[in-house]
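protien #1 (seq + structre)
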Amino acid sequence: MLCFIFIHPSIHLQGSNYKPPTMVKANPSLLLQSFFFFFLLPCLSSSCPEYQKQALLQFKSSILAIDSSFHTLDSWNSSSSNCCLWDKVTCSSPSNSNSTSTPSVVIGLNLSYLSAPLMSSNLLAPLFFIRSLRVLDFSNNFMKGQIPAPGFSNLSNLVHLDLSSNSINEIPALGFGNLSNLVHLDLSSNFINEIPALGFGNLINLVHLDLSWNFMKGQIPALGFGNLSNLVHLNLNWNNINSQIPALEFVNLSNLAHLDLSRNFIYGQIPLQLFQLKYLQYLDLGYNELQGGLSPKLGYLQDLRMLNLSSNCLSGELPEEIGNLTKLQQLSLSSNKISNGIPSSILHLRELEELDLGKNSLSMEIPSDIGNLSNLSSLSLGKNKLTGGVPASMQKLNKLNLLDLKGNLLTGEIPFWLFDFKDLQYLYLGGNNLTWNNNMKVVPKCRLLGLSLRSCGLQGDIPEWISTQTNLYFLDLSMNQLHGPLPQWLSEFQTLLALILSHNKLSGSLTTTLLRSSQYLSILALSHNNFSGELPKNIGDAWPLSFLLLDGNNFSGPIPQSISQFFFLQFLDLSHNRLSGNIFPVFDRQLFLFYADFSSNQFSGEVPTTFPPNINTLALGGNKFSGALPLNLKKLRNLERLELQDNNISGELAKSLLQISHLRVLNLRNNSLQGSIPKTLSNLQNLRILDLSSNNLTGEIPIEFVNNLTGMIEALPNPTSQTPDFPAAVSFSSSPIFKTEFVRNELIVNWKKYKQGLSSHYIDMYFLLDLSNNQLSSEIPVSLGALKALKMLNLSFNKLFGKIPASLGDLQNVEGLDLSHNKLSGPIPIAFTKLQQLTTLDVSNNKLIGRIPVGGQMNTIVDPNFYANNSGLCGFQIRVPCPGDRPPAPKLQEHYNKKEPWILLEAMGIGYPVGFLLTIGIIFLAGYFNPSPLSNSRRRHCHHPLRLIKQRI
């Protein structure tokens, strides 16, 4: 039996190291109200009313009707007259006065974790008769359905309601009726699909509201929270809310201390009104789509302890006013587009314990006095553009537990005092221009769990001092100059989760000892080294492996059958080795395998299909596979990328391919396929890259095949999105502290006359159709012009005839168009001048005639080789004039040169008489001409007329 109840709407911050304040600076009356029930409910002894007892028994009976083995409420029985003595029931104290006596009534029910089967919300109906209820906790059950609003409207005295961790899917449109006394409401971890239109505006005394971990979509309603002026704690994280932050609504929440809107789809700018919430201590807007810059008014939130704006699209500079948040303990602005330098005012945040500015575009140097933030335990500045060295003042960060500087432009020697921090557990320095002093001896005082020295200039053997770090979970020494075999002491790391040694010069064989060393080993990346020999037959003993990358070595022999025992395997890359054999392991159908690359080896036999049906990418190119395409390919129904190029595959295009409807990339280049292109290939509507070049395909290009390739008709609106629907890489994160990413290999295609690798990071940007080097003989379908997303179209080296359709001028995104070595006739369509993206056009070796179009990009394609061996082309691009062209006009200088003698004679004949008359007129008008005889004095001043004119001029 509960003796008392304690309700406190305190602020429970979720930050890992955040220390909640002892008291919230909110309305004092709210705090008094929250402690009221602590003193109100002492141990009870009088009986509860009979009708309340019967209501509770009816509730229990409803559960027993579903599950007769239910025993959680065994103390609830009719033989006990006082329900106040039952488990999970709390009653009020009886009161006595001179005139009246008030019996005990039920005011609290703690019915969480009843361990009952899935229940309907209708089972709560008997409880709605207990109108004296003030506290109801029905959390962590399996209750489903809608919240019964009419029933709850009876419980007008309810102060605390917890329905979290159930399966509730809807809140009534009118919310919770007249529960105006409610102080604490928790509906988190349900399946509620939207916030009711009227929100919770009638719950005017609400202090704590938690709607997190639901499926609420749409907007935050305009009337949803505006009346909740007493609200202190509001949590809406982990939903699907897609709206801006309603500025006018939140500005009324003047007592708000905890606001969490993280992990939604909230967009727009952060409203300035939010910075007027002067009591705000916890603000989490991370993992949304917020844009714009950070306002200097952020500095108004001087009581803030935790600020998380990570994983948005915020840009601009960090305002200097961020230094006004002197009580801040956690600050995360990672994964945005924030630029320029780290402001010096950040050094005012002396209470700061966690600082994360990683994955931005920050430049300039790390503040030299960053070591003055003496309370820092976690400092993450990785993946920016920071320059300079590691500041010496960091030596003062004695509490440092995590230091992440990876992926910057830092220079200089790695300071060895970094290994003197006794509490340091995670050190990530890789991907900079830092250098390691291979002559210095390191004696670490720390016990590292994570270490990255990728691309730090390590030479020779793997450093011996690492052998002392036997608690390592994560070790990345890739892209260095390490050589020699793997040291034996690596096998003693029993907690190792990830070992990344790619891009070195390590040699020797892969030993079973290493694979068995850790029962947690999930990542083993040894790509691009000099390892050799056969793979261990019992490689499958390392069953926890999720990522196995052995590509770019000299491994030989068959693939061990035990590799199929990797039940958690997601990413497997054995490409570019000397592996051989014609029998592939049979992978379990339930395997999580996402990516498998066996390309550029010496495998033979039929194309293997013994992969789990959920595999996404399968690369088998550059081997010696032969025979027809197997029918079992259709079982790989989730394939999006299939690469079979550069093999000896024969026969016709199998119908089994046509049933893999998710295919986006299909590469069958350079095989021996025969027959025609099936019309039903158009069933692959998601295709973006189709390469059937260098085969023996015959017949026509089917019109139906073109019309339904919808994946090539429209380009993606934002192919560089950070969350592409065609994943370029697979991320691994065993904890939020360290994360790594494995990029899928490039796709090699013929691009603009050359073989090029298309980066998997931008695979959604490429749309390619290559049917070149076959025996296709038909006209080019007019419908090809509908594939407006195409960037590359190659139909060269076939037997295509007829005119080039003008519709190809509608390929608005095409960059390369190759129609060479066919039998095409007629003119080049004038519509080609509309192709604004065109940089390569080859129509050579056809029967084309007429003028090469002028205008647009056609004026830039002037290489005569692209037009060679046609019967009648002309135009300035090939320096061949067309019939009817006017001869070029003579140059202006030549015209004048031919006229020059005539001009001289004409000038002499006309110029002298005219000049003489003008001279006499000027002299006369100027008063220099006098008919009377000149005196001697006057004569002295007479000058030759030409001299006079020259002087006056």
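ok now protien #2
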Amino acid sequence: MFCCLRAVRSLKLSTKHPQLKIPKSHVPVLELCLEKILLQCILQSRTLSGADAINALRPFYFAVHPDFFGQHPKEREVNENSLKRLNGYLENLQKPGFRSFKPTQLTFYVREREPNSSNVQESFSASGFRAVSFTLHTRDLLSTVLDILNSCSLSTEHIQSLNVNSQTHKEAKSTVNRPIKWDKTYYSFTGFKDPEEELEQAQRVETTLISWLDDNEASAVKKLKKSLPLRKELERLKFELSHQLELSDIRWQRSWGIAHRCSQLHSLGRLVQQRPEVLKNVKGRTVVFTDRSGMSAAGHIMLGTMDVHHHWTKIFERLPNYYKLQKRLLFLEDRISQILGGIQVIYIEELQPLLTLEEYYETLDSFYNKLRDSRLPFHPRSLRGLQMILESDRYAPSLHEFGHFTIPTVCDPATLQWFIFAKAQEARENLKRKEEMMITEKELIDTSTEKFSLDRLYKEPSVSSAQMIDCCKRLLEESLPYLQGMHLCISHFYSVLQDGDLCIPWNWKN
């Protein structure tokens, strides 16, 4: 661009200096051509704005948005947490003078099926989406946007319409976006740190637990202290409402912040004051704040956080009808169990999609009618002690590591019979191992909480008991004074949540 400016200036000087030997008749034409080139250079060198970045990432947001993973709670939670960290990374890129960029590893579940990328770890699931992991270490919005789209095998053609120079992306990956490129001897002589060398080292060195805690402890402590008054308020509201309504528990389906949760409890408290008569049937029940209102397959009262009091009131008024439907559902589960030799039909909240009571009843009813017509020759009570869950998005039966069978609702009865007979002994062994693992997991959590003086130690639902056990065992071998008084969440990545909780991957590195 500077060359173009100098060329235009030289042409203007040529009219005053004949020794340049440029014909006067050619000057206007050349000036016009160079000005057009200059304008194109200015347009192409324009930096990507925050609004442009959002527009460019629309295909990505559409592919990973948590709202599209309503039937897959584990994948939804991973995408929610990764989006929070990505948004923080993008916000930092737009801060004037911000220079402290650390490589950020992200994992997303992408809904659309595309060919595997050669430089990204991908794995396809039976549910029609794939897990994609990649590391961001770029220092400008354009390179970051292109990295994200390319990592997820999404098209980047639409970025050309934003009038940005995407040809510099390849260089941006290996060089730092700054106006002056100093020779290496400059850093040797002055003692200053070379940004390019620091970036290369960061890419080569994998994040370790100690280094990450050292870098993020101060930020986490600051956020935690700020959240303490709200945490106390949340506990007070939860205790008062649980006691007043005689509830078994109050939960949240998603990882909302403390302030958001307090707001939801305040809203429920106002409804109790305004319409106490509609809550007379909630005794002994669990209330779950989630994305929609109704009753869950597990029998919990769901209150949609986007719904107004009118919708909540309707749900509470319909509770007697829900309880009747729940009795019919239990009867269906019992009938299926009798046909299948006494195997217990269960619903596992942590592993299955969030279904309403009506949806789950329809699933059971359809499966029961298919079994009743097939008349499978299971001996009565031959499979007592075994467990199974039903899923509508699978096509082949499987045995979970925890010992329960996962049976598709469309499974052929003959295939179902053969699979259960073949895997029955292995299922019993897995169930026994599960009980032992649950005891070991709880003991390790208690021991780790005590050793590091943690205020709380918990895991995300997507972390298995085996992973949690492995993580805690290795933690107990370390000396980690950083963790005193903190809230530690075992997850799949490093992150500091908005209320100061520390998230570390279960397979953290020394």
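Residues 4 and 336 are 79 Å apart (CA to CA).
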